[in-house]
Amino acid sequence: MNSEVFELRRGSTPLLVSLPHVGTQIPDALRTAFVERALWLEDTDWHLESLYDFVGELGGTLIVPQFSRYVIDLNRPPHDAPLYDGGNNTELCPTRFFTGEPLYRPGRAPGPEEIETRRRQYWQPYHDALDQELGRLQATHGHALLLDAHSIRSELPWLFEGKLPDLNLGTANGKSCAATLRDTLAQVLANGSRYSHAVDGRFRGGYITRHYGRPETGIHAVQLEVCWSCYMEELPPYSLDESRAVYLRPLLREFAASMLYWAAQHG
Known about the structure:
Layout: E1 6-9, E2 15-18, H1 28-31, H2 48-51, E3 61-65, H3 112-141, E4 144-152, E5 167-170, H4 179-191, E6 197-199, H5 207-212, E7 219-227, H6 242-266
Parallel strand pairs: 2-3, 2-4, 4-7, 5-6
Antiparallel strand pairs: 1-3, 5-7
Helix pairs in contact: 4-6
């Protein structure tokens, strides 16, 4: 299923993988509002389609947006409340790079009407599709599994102190999935001896994980944030490094497969 906003590739198992920050399009009408640097799209979740190329083989469903997070952030709440208290945050329609500098030319940042237009045009269709697919999977299998997949530069002082752990599992402090699933996935990460990891640390799950994870109804959602340093160059042109990615892909596959195995045992 394709639309101008996203591509949806349906599978046969209860797993749905969302890649909300991989889009790279900016509408022509908006391009002149951004500073030139923004057109390099540096805060994209680079190369995740390549890293998660196994989703179809596992029978999972994949949803991939077309437009950049600079247009609108699909992992932020529609009312634009901050995700994390007590620190810097980026908005529903971001106005700053992850390094803190302005994304827009002076006086060109979107106002309330423009933000609402983007919400309706880009954010709402993606979330309608997420909601419908989770409903379809739950109706078909009796439960649904949502993996919200992300990646980020390993050091961003404007957002957090120091270097992030390599792999960051978020479950809204255990509220977005069953405790046994959280434990299972945490063990998968712990077994990946090449990588450091955290569970519900700096990244506890964004809007998608928190909103859709309803384990009491059979919908289990988790977020996995991976540091770029695990698989790519962290400076332009942000190239994929296969010598590193070759070790990460099997772990990501095991992570997703463990969700399905858990569901088969507990569903």
